[in-house]
């Protein structure tokens, strides 16, 4: 591999040809290297990447991983992955050859993660530890599936952390009514929380709503997008899953309330955000309402759990609830099984009848 010295400034550069993924011959020029050796090593690494050679550096493979994965997922999802990769993974492995990272190396990294502290001086939570370990494993899985790596060393090293607790908090109808009464003096937050509780939509779905999403004649609400704040900019994305795109029938009282809310605006364009709030403002609003009303503190997302709980207590099936909140019915059955208290009794009764028949 040849490297050349730039007579103008004394730096080194490489210029070579390679075959791209379409089979076409391409020319590559890269300048600005301090030494000949640095220039040659860059060329070798570039060619390893183009050949999908597992001997490429971990850092080079992460760039390929980004090219493959980023276009397929939502931007905010990639940014979460990117944050973990850059802060918790690359500092340990970036200069290592992908193919030479062993389970022993992974164990050492895991032990380092177990020792780390967050900004408050506390150890990382079990859920976060599992999340960063899963991200490292996902990178190696990608290398095994598409780039010829022999095995995923994270699998052999085992897991750290624990999955998110299945326990969830929710408000009863009585608790919500106490809370919402305390929000009467904050109209925008009042109507936002009314929709969250009585419709069971996600926080991002709420913040993306526009007047065009409401059909007051049919008494429906169309969910087709989600709001995110990414790098200081408002970003509207598709909702979480295809199942999340749905039309919800809303109760009469809520239709009346939202129409009253719209009348408070001098002008409200069809494509304007109905609730121009941030997620932080919603959280602060919930904290205020909890303090004023005395009800227990829950997360914004727990209002969605509260809506599901209400529908279960009203006797609706997992299929019907899943269609309303944008979940597969099997997910509703799995996540909220403990909230279907009568089902097991009904099963036992039916089995008794079957035995006696």
Main attributes of the structure:
357 residues, mainly alpha, DNA polymerase, domain 1, hpI Integrase, Chain A, 2 domains, three-stranded antiparallel beta sheet, 15 helices
Description of the structure:
The strands form three sheets. The chain has a three-stranded antiparallel β-sheet with strand order 1-2-3, with helices on one face. A hairpin with a 2-residue loop joins strand 6 and strand 7 (233-237). The protein contains 15 helices and eight strands. It has helices at 36-50, 58-69, 75-93, 103-115, 126-146, 153-157, 173-181, 187-199, 203-207, 252-262, 279-293, 302-313, 318-325, 329-335, 341-356, and strands spanning 4-5, 12-19, 25-33, 214-215, 220-223, 226-230, 233-237, 246-249. It folds into two domains: 4-157, DNA polymerase, domain 1, CATH 1.10.150.130; 173-342, Orthogonal Bundle (hpI Integrase, Chain A). It has 357 residues and is mainly alpha-helical.
Roughly what fraction of the amino acids lie in strands?
Answer: 5-15%
**Helicity, as a percent range:** 40-55%
CATH class of the largest domain: Mainly Alpha
CA-based shape? elongated
Number of strands: 8
How many structural units, i.e. domains? Answer: 2
| Number of helical elements | 15
The CATH homologous superfamily of the largest domain = Intergrase catalytic core
Biggest beta sheet summary = 3 strands, antiparallel
User: What are the segments in which pLDDT stays under 50 over at least 5 consecutive residues?
Assistant: none
Order of helices and strands: EEEHHHHHHHHHEEEEEHHHHHH
């Amino acid at each position: 591999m040849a490297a050349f010295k730039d007579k103008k400034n004394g730096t080194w550069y490489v210029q070579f040809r390679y075959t791209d993924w379409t089979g076409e011959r391409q020319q590559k020029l890269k300048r600005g290297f301090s030494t000949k050796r640095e220039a040659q090593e860059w060329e070798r690494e570039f060619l390893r990447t183009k050949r999908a050679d597992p001997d490429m550096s971990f850092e080079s493979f992460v760039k390929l991983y980004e090219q493959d994965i980023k276009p397929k997922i939502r931007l905010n999802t990639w940014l979460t992955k990117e944050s973990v990769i850059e802060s918790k993974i690359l500092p340990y492995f970036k200069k290592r050859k992908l193919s030479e990272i062993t389970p022993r190396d992974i164990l050492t990294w895991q032990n380092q993660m177990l020792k780390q502290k967050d900004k408050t001086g506390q150890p990382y939570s079990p859920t976060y530890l599992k999340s960063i370990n899963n991200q490292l494993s996902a990178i190696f899985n990608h290398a095994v599936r598409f780039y010829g790596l022999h095995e995923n060393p994270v699998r052999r090293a085992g897991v750290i952390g624990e999955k998110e607790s299945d326990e969830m908090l929710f408000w009863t109808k009585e608790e919500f009514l106490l809370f919402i009464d305390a929000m009467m003096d904050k109209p925008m937050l009042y109507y936002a929380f009314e929709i969250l509780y009585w419709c069971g939509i996600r926080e991002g779905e709420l913040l993306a709503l526009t007047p065009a999403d409401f059909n007051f004649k049919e008494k429906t609400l169309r969910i087709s997008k989600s709001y995110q704040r990414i790098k200081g900019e408002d970003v509207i994305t598709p909702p979480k899953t295809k199942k999340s795109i749905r039309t919800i029938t809303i109760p009469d009282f809520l239709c009346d309330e939202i129409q009253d809310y719209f009348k408070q605006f001098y002008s409200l364009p069809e494509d304007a955000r109905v609730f121009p709030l941030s997620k932080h403002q919603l959280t602060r609003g919930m904290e205020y309402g909890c303090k004023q009303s005395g009800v227990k503190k829950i997360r914004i997302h727990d209002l969605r759990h509260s809506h599901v709980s209400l529908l279960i207590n009203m006797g609706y099936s997992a299929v019907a609830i899943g269609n309303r909140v944008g979940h597969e019915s099997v997910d509703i059955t799995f996540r909220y099984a403990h909230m279907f208290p009568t089902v097991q009794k009904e099963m036992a009764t039916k089995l008794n009848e079957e035995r006696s028949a």
